[in-house]
Design a protein that fits this description.
The chain is an alpha+beta fold. It has a single domain, classed as Glutaredoxin. The chain has 6 helices and 9 strands; from the N terminus they run αββαβαβαβαβββαβ. The strands form 2 sheets. It has a 7-stranded mixed sheet with strand order 2-1-5-4-3-7-8. The chain is globular, with a radius of gyration of 19 Å. It starts with a helix and ends in a 5-residue tail after the last strand.
Length: about 210
């Protein structure tokens, strides 16, 4: 009888550890824990590589019809493969009123090469035409439920999430992309319709959150 009870306790303890572990993973950036479609994004202010502070509301005051928030970083190979695409996307959509705002949420102590100086160097080397912001407290990443890089969120004129997911359907090779999800989503909003699809699966490196 004692052996049965001991076994049951071990099983329950193990189950408890599993549940706690899964809960911890969700808190560290599972998109189900962040903004959902239709949610209004709370204004935020982050430091940019240009040395200035940038608020989400600033872009709207400057005439934006929406904002494309992309969580990215310096060192993730998938982010690097999408870098030129993000530049091209901003150049195409910013003139339509939808600028790209890139955010690096990685903890620089856990992700060597993602410190602020490295961000400045990367933005300079690649001549980023968009703002590249550091989410030092990681609160913005957590509020969005950002889990990996690159991961995109399209906001409408009311700062509501209207699309979340991948940039296109070919994360590793731009030449193979046949569906340009964000670009299509922007066109939907310009036409007064909701993006379809509104949610896609993005692929990339996990964001390095503090524990």
């Amino acid at each position: 009888m004692k052996q049965v009870l001991s076994f049951a306790i071990v099983m329950l303890t193990g189950l408890g550890i599993f549940i706690q572990s899964r809960h911890s993973e969700n808190k560290a950036g599972d998109s189900t824990e962040g903004y959902q479609l239709g949610d209004q994004v709370v204004d935020f202010k982050l430091s940019g590589v240009d040395g200035a502070s940038h608020s989400l509301s600033d872009y709207y005051r400057q005439g934006a019809e929406g904002v494309i928030v992309i969580f990215t970083c310096n060192i993730c190979p998938v982010s690097q493969r999408n870098e030129d695409r993000i530049i091209a996307l901003h150049q195409k959509t910013s003139i339509l009123g939808f600028p790209v705002v890139a955010i690096n949420t990685n903890d620089p102590e856990k992700s060597s090469g993602d410190d602020f100086a490295a961000m400045q160097a990367r933005a300079s080397d690649k001549s980023y035409p968009f703002d590249y912001l550091q989410d030092m407290t990681q609160e913005v990443g957590k509020s969005f439920g950002a889990g990996h890089t690159p991961q995109a969120f399209l906001l409408d004129k009311e700062q509501r999430v209207r699309y979340m997911g991948a940039i296109d359907d070919s994360p590793y090779n731009a030449a193979n992309a046949s569906q340009h999800f964000i670009e299509d989503a922007v066109n939907h909003l310009k036409q007064g319709t909701m993006p379809d699809p509104a949610i896609t699966k993005s692929i990339g490196c996990s964001i390095k959150y503090r524990t």
